[in-house]
Fold these 2 entries.
Entry 1:
Amino acid sequence: MPNYVYTMLIPLLPLASFLVLGLFGRKRLDAAAGIIGVLSLLAATVLSVVTAYKYFSTAKVNGAYQQIIAFKYTWLQFSPHISIDMGVLLDPISVMMIFIVSFISLMVHVFSLGYMKGEGRLAAYYAYLSLFTFSMLGLVLSSNIFQLYIFWELVGVSSYLLIGFYFDKPAAVAASKKAFIVTRFADLGFLVGILILAFNAETLDFGILIERLTNTQSAWSMAITGSSFLGISALTWGLVLVFAGGAGKSAMFPLHIWLPDAMEGPTPVSALIHAATMVVAGVYLVARLFPVFSINGAALNIVAYVGVFSALFAATIACTQTDIKRVLAYSTMSQIGYMMFALGVAKYGGEDGLGYMASMFHLFTHAFFKSLLFLGAGAVIHRVHSNNIKDMGGLRKRMPVTHIGFLVACLAIAGIPPFAGFFSKEEILTAAFHSNKLIYGVGLLVSGLTAFYMFRLYFSIFWKKSPSVLEEDGAGSSRIHSEGTASMKLPLILLTAASILAGFFPISKYVTSDAVPLETHVDWVFSIAPVALAVLAILGAARLYKTENDKPEKLAAALGAVYQSAYRKFYIDEIYLFITQKIIFNGIGRPAAWIDKNIVDGCMNAIASATAKIAAMIKGVQSGKIQNYALYFFAGIAGIAVMVIYLWR
Amino acid sequence: MTGIPLTQILIVSTALFFIGMYGLFTRRNMITMLMAIELILNSVNINFVAFNKYLYPEKLDGIFFSIFIITIAAAEAAVAIAIIINLYRNYHSIDAEDAGEMKF
């Protein structure tokens, strides 16, 4: 068996770059920061590709891919059985993920060379990017559920730093705090879930944990299914709480509220974190524990319904938003909903595991076309200096590379053959069709909505107005410069190629629920419905948005309250504000503050002021006259003498 | 000597004690205060010796104690006079009222 110890370097290279840039960057390396970041990521990407090649060509034993622990170090030994290890676990999904994460991160680093040119604090920017990449790679390679939790929190911290990169903008500060608090709140559930699972399985190691809990005859499995709380078994509680953590990071309803606001960060960051990597951490987590999920129908159903509801919910909102990045954020949420419900409808092993494979496939293809969309949006924003699609239009001639890339990505996400999204979405819908017709129906509807809102965005940016109109509106040519440097175009071109080709990648041979390759085939008859729906939606979007007209306004007016509530994101933010500010602040926070101020502090203040008052009263005794002191002394002695003689005799 | 009862000796020593006490509290001159303290110590010595003689004539403990007290009184006088000299150097006075800075 080949030696995989070098895979340790894949997360460590970005860490090294983070340390170098973080410690010495500000003073000496500001100009070279980008180069250092790109080089370390390039090395990590090359290593991941080598690892992937080696793993998929040699790790198959008896027709199934083996889990390989490439490296393991016992970091913290709690008890003879339970320890927190730092390790590297290689299996099909982690190998796939290191490739995606390092490749997308490399693209984002390269794109940033052009996009962030002229911004201040470049060393800090690249240091944060490296820290993020390190944490994400560490997360996917974790061999121990607690190691995964540590990296999970590191991912949260680095995303907080990156969202708040423009910390002089109040909106960015608020968004970074919101992202951190919401995901942290979800992580509380994750931690409790880990503790429940680890307490019952008596291990934190993924391999052993899964083995013990899936074997329904084992003592550990009996213990966890036997004990219950509120009539629900401990296993279900554990899995649902773990999923809550995943839902927080993956922006599933109702913990999605941080994702749209997180778009305040620099656009390449949105491409990296909020499109391709961090938000799929939740999907990855469920996939990592999938064997355990698959034996618990209740938890799996929750995953499926939360996923499908989030997909529909986000797609509806995406149709009404006018901020280019927010539309993409909601579309991300919707696509992750797809991945979640695909996992939710899957079962372990063989043909039933189609959903699992489809989910991973969609994760794979989505990473390419969504980061392409974000980077394309970044190029557009770089050029027109606005996030609002009303300020855009007619850009297709001025930004040909971006235009082609964006079009390909839109076709891919809409599920038009032969682009990447078509294949993965078909697999997901097939899996849903075979297990739950309701989910299939909603999934189909959402795929139509996806095509509609993506092409609404596409036509609004690149068509609508004639190019000359933009020139006149644009207040002179100084604001409208060229499409961008080569470093911005290169990632766009590479990702465009990936978005076209990724769908042909025979993922079922590599990534399946039980690691045994699976034969799949595209059922062309089955694809007719979603593709026809997508084409119809595209035509509808073209009719409404390709040229400037008043049809969208009329449609919005006709939909009235429905449009308004979708535009206001179904008032979820308002509900949260109501719950936190009106109920929690008034009902819990203020009474607690009152108790703290008046009772806890009050006791201390009363003691202090009583001491001060008594001291003020008796300080006259300290007269400085030595004979007075002697007199008190004798009086005391006399008093004691009297007591000794008359009282205690 | 044997005809004097214990009570009369105690009256003398009590008188001596309170004379010393009176001197300590009314005089402002440090040397006089020191002398008053010596009076108090001597009244204690008289008590020790008298109790030893009248109550436990076969033992010598009380006499030992009074010798100790005399020794300590000598040492105490040396220290006290050194303090008074230092006080004089700082205040050009040995009046207890003049060294009244140590107050609140």
Entry 2:
Amino acid sequence: MTMAAAAPALLEVEDLHTEFHVKNKLIRAVNGVSFSLRRGEILGIAGESGAGKSVTCLSILRLVPNPGRIVKGRIRFAGEDLLGKSEKQMRDLRGQTVSMVFEDPLNSLDPAFKVGDLIGEALTLHKGLGKREARKKAGELLRLVGIPDPDRRLDSYPHELSGGMQQRVMIAIALSCDPALLIADNPTTALDVTIQIQILDLVKQLRDRLGMGVLWITHDLGVVAKLCDRVVIMYAGEVMEEGDVYGVLKRPRHPYTRRLIEALPKLGRPEQRLMPIEGRPPDPANLPMGCPFAPRCYKAQPACGEHDVPLVGTDNGGAVRCLFPET
Amino acid sequence: MASAPLIQVKHLVKHFPVRQSFLARGPAGAVRAVDDISFDIDAGETVGLVGESGCGKTTTGRMIMKLLAPTSGEILFDGRPIADLDFEQEKAYRRQVQMVFQDPFSSLNPRMTVGSIIGYPMRIQNAYPGPARDSRIRELLELVGLSRYQANWYPHEFSGGERQRVGIATALALNPKFVFCDEPVSSLDVSAQAQILNLLKDIRSEFSLTILMVTHNLSVVEYLADRVVVMYLGKIVEVANTADLYRDTLHPYSRALMSAIPTPEPDLELAREQIILRGEIPSPLNPPSGCRFHTRCQSYIGDMCRDVEPALREVRPGHFAACHLYSAAAS
């Protein structure tokens, strides 16, 4: 990797390949993804649906659903090789040192349990706390994530809470065992914008206070701009560009990143016609040779489709996978 | 471009009664989804109706579509109240008002070809009989940027953005005057979103359509709308021409909404005002007294906000806001 920073990496993903065998087809969902994340850093993974963002995260947790398989690559977390761990070791890790927040809070919270029990479960399981201690800690966690009147809320059921509150409960559960790494998969898409910004602000505060690393998956580059320190742009299972958020959004090097930004309506400039990206993303069962974006790219040359394009470092500390990057 | 208003909404109210439990008798309360709102939509104008979940924006649109009956108040279309139409007039009305739905996955029947989906409104209304219908279907497909031979395809063979094009073609099938777009791009990927917004912009000027667009995304509204109505908990808080609203946002809620929209422009992100509202959106079952926004307002100016409901008043020419900040200045 091209990271210039000296701090040791908390999470290193190297040349990750995850594939799904479906009905005689081989779907290459993640195709040689590499990135690293430092302690206390918020890294965004951005891209459109089908880019392989979620599968990358599930691969890190070793939760890829059948018939998916991690076929190649290395995932190192705090110096340890995650792919070499046994299922039991992974289970101890999940929810404790690495935890995850999902997109849809109502579907990930068991409707039959009270909020206090949902948070307490992880505490009794991983930390060996007694019932009373777990309840006390659960109340503290609810206060930490900004739920008013937390002690009363412990006895609420998930359906009694609003979407924003449910997502806060999810975050409280994820934080219950002081994780070193929080993985969040599109957790604010279902929320209203004024609630979304509260959650983004909360995550930033918690990062400052607890020093955890955060991996934040989103399809919204605006959220990346608000929240993240660095960003990885994915397309068709590959990293197209990475770098610090300001640099990538201000001066995108990859034509895909540039197109993605140009396709968004900008505040204050309604007269500027949007530039949609023509064509469709490639079929993951039948990826083109070379750069997967080449068939839709305005800069494509014959060379783009001939062989795989390497991820090359840029002068501003990022990296781009393009033969003819923007300067 | 403005002439006589095509649609006038007058003191529109919609309450949904709620029972406490199935054993308790009678309505226990009501969700006050829309609570006395008035606004006009001029012919050829695109109005954006903005707000968060539960503010009543979709309910308002559905009442204009005559899919819901108002609790009180009235809606005039071309000067005539839509509540009083007889059978034939109502059939004609439904031909003139059409709708584009939020979710292109659940709004298209998976067992019908897109040709028959687009032809369905024509079948019901007996429009374009015989071979004219097929050529109309092909014409519509091309109009929305699909190709004519795709008429025999099924919805699952299309991507999300293409399905939304089918939804737009269906809405245009009967040459409507007015189209209600309910969050037309919120379920689409970025690139498809841009295509649909451009398509809406093009067909609007080509057919001089009047559009009401409901969305929570203020940057989408800015791109398409001439005028914006901002709603909060069943009330209108601000109405302005799009450019005025963005240049000079009056209501504290609109300002907070504006500052909360994520934008991929890092310089703007650093420069602009950051307002993070406290608290949740209150329940429309029991909205706060006085100004409904006072529980979360960053510009709370005292008891007045809690006790007195602010009226929507014209603060600048054509720019209305319902906030005591401006009524205090005026008096």
